[in-house]
Amino acid sequence: MAEGDNAVTRGEVLNALAVDEEFLIALEREAIIHVESTGLYTSATVERIRICWTLHHDLGVNLAGLEVALNLLERIHSERRQFHRVLAWLRENFESKQ
After folding, report:
1. Cα separation of 5 and 3, whole Å?
2. Which of 14, 17, 45, 76 is the most exposed, fewest CB within 10 Å of its CB?
3. CA separation (Å) from 43 to 26, 48, 60, 92, 93?
4. CA distance 76 to 98
């Protein structure tokens, strides 16, 4: 767990996100989310749960679809970070040439 990352209990996750405990258990069983060895959930895991619940509850996405959607979202975020690094490098090199 990252330093400064606030970990929360299962009960806190259930209350904060208003998700069904059975849904949370299913996410864990399918390894869509991972619980820390302490039994706590990191803020990143809580965000994954929130996204999964929204997709499942509001849009009817099943567990297999949730895993695909999360992988695609992670890929998009990774590509965006890479794009911003390249853009910063281009700006830095372009500005230094002028």
Report:
1. 5
2. 76
3. 19, 9, 24, 33, 36
4. 33
What pTM was computed for the model? 0.79
Q: Name the 3-class secondary structure at 51.
A: helix
CA pair distance 98, 96, nearest whole angstrom: 6
Does residue 45 form part of some domain? yes
| Structural domain containing residue 63 | 10-97
Alpha carbon distances (Å) from 58 to 8, 27, 38, 52: 24, 17, 31, 10
In a domain, 51, yes or no: yes
| Rounded Cα gap, residues 50 and 84, in angstroms | 26
Structure tokens at 68: 């695909």
Taking only the tens place, the pLDDT of each residue in 23-67 is: 999 999 999 999 999 999 999 999 999 999 999 999 999 999 999
